[in-house]
């Protein structure tokens, strides 16, 4: 299949809007797709010649084709508590989150929500997620099964949590180890699924469970580890109380051998210089969740400080639904822009779109598979319409450059901006059966 349209993909971080060598843009471009992979991309004439006259052409002109968006941190069992009023992190967890996650004991419920979750991701143009399931093994089984059926590249794990939550969402050090082992054996590398060892955060694990997470990470050094770090002041103080020997919050994860280039650390808002150095030295990834950080009043992630410091951090961006308030990576980057602006800095539109495609793929160590339009990678593609609403159409009339068009989509766009999504080369958004069941 030959997808025709304007094509945009990134080759590296764009230093400025004039850094044209950082991206590949074709006004009349095409992507040749076969067997779920990108065979070639570039100018239409060139790619069409390669495809031959028998190739089926899907003409998306004048829309923009880009790699599918990547969400680096999101909670599947929080779909029904998004938009829960009036709490900071620890109260929000106790009041809304833990009771809600307890309902995932029911495997049918887990399967239904996983289905609706991936539907919603697709509708918003997100083709890869790093996801937290509930404490229940069956919630992760349901999620991986659903992703497998759709041939989606997902990174996910059941949360390990054995204290400081509801009894109903506690596991034990041994059961968390056993369940994680069984899930790795069943789902890691099955289809496009990748398992992430997922201790929820330091507060909800005993030292015994942290040791189990350490054992798992040591036994599976190729796997991702995902957790939360330094989101909120009360959380940091409680962590310090639970681990009195620790130099700081990051030291807890360091101590249990959980830092590394496949480690994804949600939030990282209140890091000291020492902690930021540890993230940098270990190649661990700081995950910026702007809508969540604003909604829960957690603080402002210092993107530009982290990027520019002598020891820079690897950064990804994410929705953190249901602490986050929108499934869209466009809406997420709009809020990211504002969080960065509040700190007197800027993130230009090329940098934003780099971040939610190639940047997040690099941060998740999957850039050899997704996040670009390079030949040999998986054909996960979004089709974007920058005039998808009346207000966008009107604003479009004044637009002269690609940078302005991207910034318009980021600032006013949402699921309506996403006209089509291809997952492993197959139309996925137009294929959705719209239902609430
Ligand atoms: N810290 C521990 N668990 C969570 C969670 O579910 N959401 C957020 N935002 N922070 C957390
Ligand atoms: Fe989170």
From TrEMBL:
Protein keywords: Hydrolase, Metal-binding, Zinc
Residues covered by the Amidohydrolase-related domain: 65-426
GO biological process: guanine catabolic process
Cofactor-binding details, from the entry: Binds 1 zinc ion per subunit.
Required cofactor(s): Zn(2+)
Pathway: Purine metabolism; guanine degradation; xanthine from guanine: step 1/1
TM annotation in the entry: none
CDD domains: GDEase
The keyword Lyase is assigned to this record: no
Catalytic class of the enzyme: hydrolase
Catalytic activity: guanine + H2O + H(+) = xanthine + NH4(+)
Pfam families assigned: Amidohydro_1
GO-annotated molecular function: guanine deaminase activity; zinc ion binding
Family: Belongs to the metallo-dependent hydrolases superfamily. ATZ/TRZ family.
Function: Catalyzes the hydrolytic deamination of guanine, producing xanthine and ammonia.
Annotated protein name in UniProt: Guanine deaminase
Originating organism: Mesorhizobium hungaricum
Phylogenetic classification of the source organism: Bacteria, Pseudomonadati, Pseudomonadota, Alphaproteobacteria, Hyphomicrobiales
């Amino acid at each position: 299949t030959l997808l025709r349209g304007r094509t945009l993909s990134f080759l590296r971080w764009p230093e400025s809007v004039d850094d044209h060598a950082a991206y590949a843009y074709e006004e009349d471009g095409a992507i040749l797709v076969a067997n779920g992979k990108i065979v070639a991309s570039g100018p239409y004439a060139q790619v069409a010649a390669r495809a031959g006259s028998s190739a089926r052409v899907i003409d998306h002109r004048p829309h923009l084709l880009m790699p599918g968006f990547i969400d680096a941190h999101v909670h599947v069992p929080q779909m029904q508590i998004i938009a829960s009023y009036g709490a900071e992190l620890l109260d929000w967890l106790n009041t809304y989150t833990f009771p809600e996650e307890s309902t995932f004991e029911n495997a049918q419920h887990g399967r239904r929500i996983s289905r609706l979750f991936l539907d919603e991701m697709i509708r918003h143009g997100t083709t890869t997620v790093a996801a937290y399931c509930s404490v229940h093994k069956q919630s992760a089984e349901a999620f991986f099964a659903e992703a497998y059926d759709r041939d989606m590249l997902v990174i996910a794990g059941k949360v390990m949590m054995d204290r400081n939550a509801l009894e109903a969402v506690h596991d034990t050090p041994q059961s968390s180890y056993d369940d994680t082992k069984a899930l790795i054996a069943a789902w890691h590398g099955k289809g496009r699924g990748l398992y992430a060892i997922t201790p929820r955060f330091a507060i909800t694990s005993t030292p015994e469970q942290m040791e189990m997470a350490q054992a798992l990470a040591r036994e599976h050094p190729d796997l991702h580890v995902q957790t939360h770090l330094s989101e909120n002041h009360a959380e940091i103080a409680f962590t310090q109380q639970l681990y009195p020997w620790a130099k700081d919050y990051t030291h807890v994860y360091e101590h249990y051998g959980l830092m590394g280039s496949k480690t994804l650390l949600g939030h990282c808002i209140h890091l000291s210089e020492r902690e930021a150095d540890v993230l940098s030295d270990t190649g661990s990834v700081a995950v910026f969740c702007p809508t969540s950080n604003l909604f829960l009043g957690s603080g402002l992630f210092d993107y530009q400080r982290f990027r520019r410091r002598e020891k820079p951090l690897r950064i990804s961006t994410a929705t953190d639904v249901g602490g986050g308030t929108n499934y869209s990576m466009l809406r997420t980057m709009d809020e990211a822009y504002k969080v960065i602006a509040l700190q007197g800095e800027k993130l230009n539109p090329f940098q934003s779109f780099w971040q939610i495609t190639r940047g997040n793929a690099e941060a998740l160590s999957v850039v050899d598979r997704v996040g670009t339009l390079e030949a040999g990678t998986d054909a996960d593609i979004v089709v974007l319409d920058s005039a998808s609403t009346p207000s966008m159409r009107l604003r479009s009339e004044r637009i002269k450059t690609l940078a302005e068009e991207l910034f318009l989509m980021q600032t006013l766009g949402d699921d309506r901006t996403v006209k089509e999504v291809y997952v492993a080369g197959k139309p996925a958004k137009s294929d959705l059966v719209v239902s609430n069941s």
